[in-house]
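Q: what does this look like with tryptophan bound?
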Amino acid sequence: MTSTTRTRVLTGITTTGTPHLGNYVGAIRPTVQASRNANTDGFYFLADYHALIKCDDPVRIQRSTLEIAASWIASGLDTDKVTFYRQSDIPEIPELTWFLTCVTGKGVLNRAHAYKAAVDKNNAAGHDTDTDVTAGLFMYPVLMGADILMFKAHKVPVGRDQIQHIEMARDMASSFNHLYGEHFVLPEAVVEESVALLPGLDGRKMSKSYDNTIPLFAPAAQMRKQIASIVTDSKAPGEAKNIEGSALFQIYQAFASAEETAALAQAYADGIAWGDAKKVLFERIDREIAPMRAQYQELINNPAKLDQILLAGADKARQMATPFIKELRHAVGLRALSSDSSATAPKDSKVALPSFKQYREKDGRFYFKLIDAQGQLLLQSCGFTSPKEAGHAIGRLQSGGLGALIELNHLFEPLDQEAQGLAVKNIEIIRSISEKSTK
Ligand code: TRP
């Protein structure tokens, strides 16, 4: 177990656009709230290396970095309490990306959603599979893995579309740990179930790529105008409206209390005119945003101050990253020729240990297996509905050994006798190790 009970929370925002209400509700607001928890250490950063994958306009990258930094601070992020930095100010991150690249299966990256979507699109259009696909897009999950693993993040708040990337980061961490010793913490995705997906002006998910966003810090008059353009059906004033499928209602819900939401639902049933509903929505959002708008403008007008804040954040981040990358360089064998090679990384004994591997199958379910040092399959789990459940079962096996194995027998594919014997032996090895490490 780690020597500290503090939870490290980390997340990044790609610097390609202007923050919109979807970013605010799905990422910035919950993250800023969580950052006030006294038992957590927050790491929040501007993912500008990631931005280069999607955007080749330098002016936009710079402007977006400015706007996102100002937005987070104006939204209440306390940069003295958390570590707030620019990804590209941390040279250790590209170096770690390479280490992780070398323990990541190419086939794993073939299955990454963003890359697969690009390939599927090409195939559907009859183009060559990799037309216009950069190696940057292909490597996206590895760079993200480096962001997360560099700071030993326990929890990573993300949108649903990013869960797969966190799972990949976990796999990279376990592969590396398996090969080189326990260096990385296995991160977990955190998705705010209630508000993670905000619809945009046209009812689809609010996203820059759909051009349906409402900028977070647009002047009030512009925000009012944009809210007036949210799609609705053509029901007349006085006609009852449906809250199901109403983008307007869903956006309201993301800002309103339960009572306010219930009141709007009642107003829908009573036939509120769409124009009036939009006014209610604008006023509710503006009540939350208006006080932050002034600070946002002040920061935007003072970029040198933001530079200073970000560089101070990078300094803080590198106090961890610099010694850690040194440790990792040593672990993989990039070390002084005069250093004692026998003193570290008892590779043989590490490799001789059995290990759990977690993964996801095409059926969408989460599995794990136990394999021994030679790669022989010892246990094969059934499918779980969440990675958490699978992780929970692993945890019980790790701490409970044979007893847990018998108790959880129904969760595994049947084994032949020889495999059963091996599984029992290895589970006990794991239990004795985890016992030692918690003492
Ligand atoms: N890929 C994330 C997104 O598009 C941004 C990101 C980059 C990130 N690195 C990260 C998020 C590390 C969490 C942790 O939303």
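The chain has a mean pLDDT of 91. The pocket of tryptophan is lined by residues 10-12, 14, 47, 50, 144, 147-148, 156, 158, 162 (CB under 6 Å).
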